[in-house]
Amino acid sequence: MFQFFKRVKTVVGSELNAMLDKAEDPVKMLDQFMREMQADIRDAETAVAKQITNEKLLFKKVTDAEQMVSKREEQAVKALEAGNEDLARRALEDKKVHAETAATLRESYERAKTDAASLRSKLDEMKSEFNEMKLKKDSLKARAESAKTRTKMNRAMSNYGDNESKAGFARMEEKVLQYEAEAETSEERRSSSRSLDDELDALDDNGVEDELAALKKKLGK
């Protein structure tokens, strides 16, 4: 469990570039690593809790056994004072049994106590490393998002000068200029045609006047 936690910490700390090379999403992967680390911590907390319970149980058994040792010794004294040597002997024999039991239990208790302290220390280390990696994860996530944003912007800027939209805009501008030129040409043609009509109308008017003058002359007017 603790070894796996160390492995996850190593991956988060030194293999971010490898994740990027494999096209893995570092943000999602970092969140996954943190979830795995949290699961390891919960397993460690369960193990520590069991060890502490075992330590307390052994301590109680040691205490009970040592109390029985004291009790049997007091009873042996009372039996002798009462003149019952046989009862005193049996009390001392039972005292010896409890003393041996107490010694064995104390040895187990001391070992359990040491193990519990070691597990608590490792759990504290895991939690400390987890908090450290949590801060690092937040920093890496922010850097990853910033890098992705810069990449998108750079790609957009690199395509900005020669993309289809700009080329299409230029074509439309050319068409507008063409429309304006055609409009000006049609206006010039219209103006030219109107002048010709005016001149022809003037000629027509002059012919009428000449004809009218001839008729007047013919009539003697």
TrEMBL record:
Lineage, uppermost ranks: Bacteria, Bacillati, Bacillota, Bacilli, Bacillales
Organism from which the protein derives: Bacillus capparidis
UniProt-annotated stretches for the region Disordered: 141-209
Name by which UniProt lists this protein: Phage shock protein A
Domain of life of the organism encoding this protein: Bacteria
Start-end of Basic and acidic residues biased regions: 186-197
InterPro entries associated with the record: PspA_VIPP1 (IPR007157)
Residue stretches in coiled coil: none
PANTHER family: MEMBRANE-ASSOCIATED PROTEIN VIPP1, CHLOROPLASTIC (PTHR31088), PHAGE SHOCK PROTEIN A (PTHR31088:SF6)
Family classification: Belongs to the PspA/Vipp/IM30 family.
Ranges of compositional bias, category Acidic residues: 198-209
